[in-house]
Amino acid sequence: MNIPEISLPRVVILGGGFAGLNLAKNIDTEHYQVVMLDRHNYHTFQPLLYQVATAGLEPDSIAYPLRKTFANKKRFHFRMAEIQEVNEEQKIVRTSIGDLRYDHLVMATGARSNYFGMKNVEANAMPMKSLTQSLDLRSMILQNFEKALYAQDVAEQKRLMTFVIVGGGPTGVELAGALAELKLHVLPTDYPDLDLRDMEIHLIEAAPSLLAAMSKQASQKALKFLEGMGVNLWVDTLVKDYDGKTVTTADREIPAETLIWAAGVMGAPVEGIQAEKIGAGNRIIVDENCQVKDSQDIWAMGDVALMQTEKYNRGLPMLGSVAMQQGSYLAKNFNRLAKGKNLKPFKYKDKGTMATIGRNRAVVDLPFWKFSGTMAWFAWMFVHLMLLVGFRNRVVTFINWAWGYLNYDRSNRLIVRNFRRKKGEVLDKVHF
Amino acid sequence: MNIPEISLPRVVILGGGFAGLNLAKNIDTEHYQVVMLDRHNYHTFQPLLYQVATAGLEPDSIAYPLRKTFANKKRFHFRMAEIQEVNEEQKIVRTSIGDLRYDHLVMATGARSNYFGMKNVEANAMPMKSLTQSLDLRSMILQNFEKALYAQDVAEQKRLMTFVIVGGGPTGVELAGALAELKLHVLPTDYPDLDLRDMEIHLIEAAPSLLAAMSKQASQKALKFLEGMGVNLWVDTLVKDYDGKTVTTADREIPAETLIWAAGVMGAPVEGIQAEKIGAGNRIIVDENCQVKDSQDIWAMGDVALMQTEKYNRGLPMLGSVAMQQGSYLAKNFNRLAKGKNLKPFKYKDKGTMATIGRNRAVVDLPFWKFSGTMAWFAWMFVHLMLLVGFRNRVVTFINWAWGYLNYDRSNRLIVRNFRRKKGEVLDKVHF
User: Fold this and answer.
1) Given a cut of 80, is residue B11 above it in pLDDT?
2) B135/A431 touch (CB, cutoff 8 Å), yes or no
């Protein structure tokens, strides 16, 4: 890989997500040469992927070119590459475009879907972890309706129009709400030849309540909102199998062309990290400085890092806000290191969580205040607009939301990918 | 195909381009049942495809869902389908989703790239006739720069950074200008590790001048603009071969990873139309009423129709404005027919032509006034904004243009498709 060799120590960052982005932004390249590797040339704002999948936003407004973010940063190099393996002894990262030497290696490779060993589900469910997967999902949802128009019989038609979402966390709840709004406001006029009463949205959750990580109040409100929007809710329910045609739970079968998997994620560590360094949830065990256990100059942060604290004895949650904070934190520590100062331990500041269900329907848990409804919804929109990278993206997203709000519309109903899964193809490994 | 049989005559429109769209909008469905077929579920605003290819606009802002346009039109049915064949005797269209009976058939299937029989060029060039092709081109351009970073030698690096555009019509000129602006304003900061002086843009045109269909003044101005922006111009030059690595003309070879074909289009008639009804440029011969020669109840309009007039003895030009006018015209004629009135012949009203080369650089030919420069550029933007379908698309496009103007930026530099052409794959036949 053509990276100039200079006299400064080289920090290699694997991944341009929230953690990697914040680290690269804040690290002082007077003291370090920084190389960032990512399989995409853009940063994805994952919390809004579900809006791309449901035609509410265009993909370009929730992604931001990584090269642009760092256009004026000296001694920073970005390379689009697939990461293959880390060799700790040689201090080398092997990638699809060659080897790269490092002085410090920071793993910020995030998470991928966890199917808990259910191969059938993995082979037939749609994940929604990347921009391209969201686009595939958007195409698939719309293609199903096109197909329903010439279905052989009513049962087949119903199956095409049935969407099962597994996982009652924020992603599942938000997706179920967005699908319900498509059903209420958009699809009836788009498909006058179909009876939209045949469209079913099911949300299946293994735990006894939705939004388990949020307050009881938020959880109950989300349930009420979704019920009011016509979503079929199945809590305390485990998915056992999915063959691409029928979803099987302990006590029933739901014929459905689409199963969207939002039930679990696990860390996505790089090959070459020893098994004993990987803990619960397939995450890399780090100390309070984000340093990997028994490793030299290897760091991990964000979803892929397992940092246990007194309060979070199963590790800090896999949230964007943890990743952002760890990215900025590690940058400061690197800057301290360069000046010969001591490392400071990471302290997670819980800023609260929120989820949106539909127009005027959201839930917000702040450390000392919990609320829901219209105000929560506006708070959700404001926070997400501010978190988006790039002014243009904010403006375009704002317009799309304002437009959708005034017109009960979702404008981006384009089928630009012809989604066809090859039999047994595992989509988590497909990046484009 | 599940289309209800009612007592009104059925008009089947093949294609949702400018012509099909305007026909369907203006035809009176009190008198007709209308079915529109298109392989995409959206209308594409083709004049701005080059901006998608050069990262200036997101795909979603130049496309518009066809179902949305006709959401409130009664007795109108849209079906997403691949058209396979017309059977004039049985009055049936065969498609990928079944057969469809028609009373009137309107062919508005547009044009596709014409490689003048050069199989090698067809197998290796990039066309830019659809939204998905533009996205492929955007990905390919950016991927080439990513690859150039780890090229084996300088020659290979240069080849990856060389873009040859064949065809000096509006598409070729606009594309060359947009690439030149990427080179000037965007790529140097995106790729500090590359020497952008190695990026070459070649525009090859067989005729002695650019923009041959426009005035001499416009043609000369465009040439001057492009030269000033560093584009290598080759007029009076024929491309003879392209093997994917080297472009061969009569007197030189240009090593280039990318050849973009904007040199010619031909009609894309449906299978089943008899050979004697197809004239110059592979277009279907129609009379002054858009009726197909010696056919019963078959009509053609837009690029696929060859309508010869006194002034245009080689047929009306393949322009969006002809297609739009013919669409509205044919709707009026159908409405007249329904009321037992006579058909009126089509009269083309030349409203002028324009092309943009770069910021503050455009050329406009109006029937009685020709101008260029900043004012022409603003006129071009205004006209194209107004022609875009959908208010949201206009606003989003306006913001992108305003943003690009103020910041010398092209925001949509995302590689969302992994473009890899299979050996010999002909891209005109790939729709997604």
Assistant:
1) yes
2) no
